[in-house]
């Protein structure tokens, strides 16, 4: 091999600090060659080593009755009874999507699916959480267009329904959009696969697509702050092949049905390097690979390129000796590349050969164990003063205000997005005609059970107060699962932040995690998987802290669930939870008053739990016709969404003694739900609520074709709907 | 005038479409085909008569809209 | 009654089609691999399922239409075997020439997934007889290339011969004459872009798809 | 040898992609563009040296697979 002298410049180009390089020198007792340096650099990148976040992630509640596998594997695994498990995870593909929105988003979807099926689960649902810059920003429209097309292009082709997500616009994301994708899969409990390579002398198989020169250094790129030049550098982004992915899923499922696989790991960021190191490290074995045997897309690839390539749709597996032929047969049937490229050893070393030479020979343990683990300085975000509702002027025209709200970028209908996603493929999406709901409902094939899935975070709260915002995003997912009648079980997360080397950003990160964790503990709602994306920052301007949370719950029997549509003429609208009219950091304040300030609404976790448990009980007892929680935009927006979805008008009456009118309509007090119930169920529900200490009041009646509220609002529902549906398509087509 | 623009994937970028075509041709018995690539051709009808000026404009269109220069390269021909 | 579903690489509605057939016939269909050279001899009805066979590369359905199994399928269809293609299956049927015309990129250029109202324009066909007096049904659509094209004389003869079985109410993709589903001259081969197999269970939001499967099964 | 195949929609078949391109270009201010069409180019790497024989084979490939002659027409060029 040509000897490249490792200079300090080369070390720096690999994103390693002099101190980190010194550790490598100490461990090896010599200078690394370029291949070895490349391997250390990707293993110790922020993306793979979580060096800034690891110690804080350790605070999360990660265990519980229903947790089969918490963080640390490719995805989390929970028990949903009857021998069924649900396997899920969320992941970011922010930087690639900014550079090449279609392929960036597509490969994000492909990558997260592999994390799930590598564990033995058939993917059954996809979700996505998207944040774009201001609609006025010149790049936003084409980014939305490309990202949405990419998500659909990949998921639709593979044939996994994309059932929900969230989309926000804010200038804070102008230079760094967020594309977080979540995948949920189903496996039988005795067919869950793990990544620890076991045994010595066992064959290592490479399957899937060939290795090309795609995205070399992609993992390091995802950890480096953007500057304006990065658009010029135009790093190679990976191109996805959903057709290959579909074949890979079917082939893996077929081989997994046998006992041929000892361990399996997808090749994600840092490809062959991280997959082989992780398998070896977890299994406490060594690994020997002959790189000449790696299926290659281009001639003359170097060991460095092969080890660092991020070509998509590839897997690594340790196969039971004697079952090699079976593995070849299955992958050849599905027309995939398959090769035996190495064996497990008892040396604890990673040894790579290429054209008859040893091109890497390093101990495996330090790659993982000695990865840097920083305690970065962090400063708490200063508390903001509370804004008094009385200090916010009332709008002179509530009709116009409501129309402005339902037509604003963050509340307007997402139909233009979700109609590009196949939501009904696999024929287990429940209630497929309705996509504005609180949580998606996907049946476990062949049963009457279903999983409920939601993604949520309110970055403006996290920015105002990371700790309260962290509590809120977990609470909102819990609430959204409750709204459909599910038992919330566990979450995954995708923590998107700026540069962790800045104490204020690190303060946001720590604050959000601590708030999230407190909510997880209060609800017994552990974190089972997740992902961290740092350095989302351009020219020193960071994104708002955005810890996206993906919640998963179980509907044990599909005879008992709810959605936000289903209110009938004559039904009564009941509001659960207390309303103080909290307008600080609300959407109303931003959209109507042009102010982004004030403390966000506090989250009382005990009250959340009590109110939510009460609502779920009512759904299980089939005493409600429709349910929706109050979130962005407050009660009036939630009530309007319910009326639109149920296709019936609504007359709202503000109870005597309630808070000021603008706060009543648009306040974002937490722990609140709206229920549509039969008129004759009202009294029994109110009295049960009273006996349990749950605040509940009657606030309206469904019927007609108008939305009316006291003497403030009188609008045709069709007009509201037209405004609500118009914004996004008009924007995209302008 | 007419502008004819060929847009193809840059060398080294995965071309799943081309691969599938090559595979399918070989299944049909066309063994002489060893590889295939697929690209786009965009043909524009343009007013004006100055070819050089047109080419410069079309180049701009490619950079802005017609090609995704992160993964694609393009070639322009101007015809009368 | 024995049915079959053909499985191509990246078919993705094969399981859904099988569920629908089993529900209506009480018996699991044969799942036939695209590389097989012959359909099982006992088959009474074949479904070509939706999906993205071969990634929809080149043209939707083009490569699947040249698969080994398709030769036998074309032969058997010519002998009168009922064959239905949904979504990608419809695209494959036009690519084989069993059905006329072609399915082009949606007029709006976007993939479109939504519950779609359809009008039954020929209630006497082998695929619609069980609908009785029902005139409109709702099936989901989910496709990128569903824009039906044929030249005017083909369209006229389809229309005159009663071979347009379903039309869209509110055209989602730009199809000529709002065509959603057509059959061949003999009436045994049928293709449509919407997905009847995703409308067979109340939890799908409706069961309008069942009538289509019942119609063809009863006609055999 | 290389075969280069241009596949385009037949005249009279509406080309939604071409329309969209023309529209986007005019939105971007390129008023000189009056119309646009989008087609495919498929490039095949082929063994052999007889150009005429190759052309005949490629024609067969087009009829059988590469073009859908209901809506598309094609043009073949063989290069060394
Ligand atoms: N990117 C997206 N992909 C799919 N569905 C989306 C996306 N963004 C929003 N949605 C859907 O739009 C609806 C409204 O979203 P959102 O306002 O975030 O709901 P909530 O306030 O309940 O969290 C939800 O049903 C959500 O699933
Ligand atoms: Mg909600």
Structural commentary:
The complex is a heterotetramer, with one copy of chain A (734 residues), two copies of chain B (80 residues) and one copy of chain C (220 residues). Chain A is of the alpha+beta class and 734 residues long. In chain A, 36% of the residues lie in helices and 22% in strands. In chain A, a hairpin with a 2-residue loop joins strand 18 and strand 19 (541-542). Chain A is globular, with a radius of gyration of 26 Å. Chain A starts with 7 loop residues before the first helix and ends with a helix. Residues 228-235 of chain A have low confidence and may be disordered. By secondary structure, chain B is an alpha+beta fold. Chain B has a single domain (2-79), classed as Mth169, Chain: A. Helices cover 35% and strands 38% of the residues of chain B. Chain C has a single domain (3-219), classed as Rossmann fold (3-Layer(aba) Sandwich), CATH 3.40.50.880. In chain C, helix 1 (14-25) crosses helix 5 (210-218). Chain C starts with a strand and ends with a helix. Chains in contact: A-B, A-C, B-C, B-D, C-D. Chain A binds chain C through residues 149, 152-153, 156-159, 241-244, 246-247, 334-335, 418-427, 429-434, 443, 445, 558, and chain C through 9-10, 12-13, 15-16, 19, 50-52, 54-57, 110-115, 140, 142, 144, 195, 197-198, 200-201, 203-205. The complex binds adenosine-5'-diphosphate (ADP) and magnesium ion. Adenosine-5'-diphosphate binds next to strand 4, strand 5 and helix 17 of chain A.
- Tell me the count of domains of chain C: 1
Beta strand % of chain C = 15-25%
Q: How much is the radius of gyration of chain A in Å? A: 26 Å
Name the strands of the widest sheet of chain A in spatial order.
8-10-7-11-9-12-13
Determine the mean pLDDT of chain A.
94
What's the N-to-C terminus distance of chain A?
56 Å
Name the ligand types: adenosine-5'-diphosphate, magnesium ion
| Total count of helical runs of at least 4 residues of chain A | 26
Helix and strand pattern of chain C = EHEEHEHEEEEHEEEH
Which two chains touch over the largest interface? A-C, 34 and 31 residues
Strand proportion of chain A, as a percent range, falls in 15-25%
Corresponding CATH superfamily of chain C = Class I glutamine amidotransferase (GATase) domain
CATH architecture of chain C: 3-Layer(aba) Sandwich
Uncertain segments of chain A of ≥5 residues (pLDDT<50)? 228-235
Strand order of the main beta sheet of chain C, please? Answer: 2-1-3-4-11-10-9-6-7
The 3D shape of chain A can be described as: globular
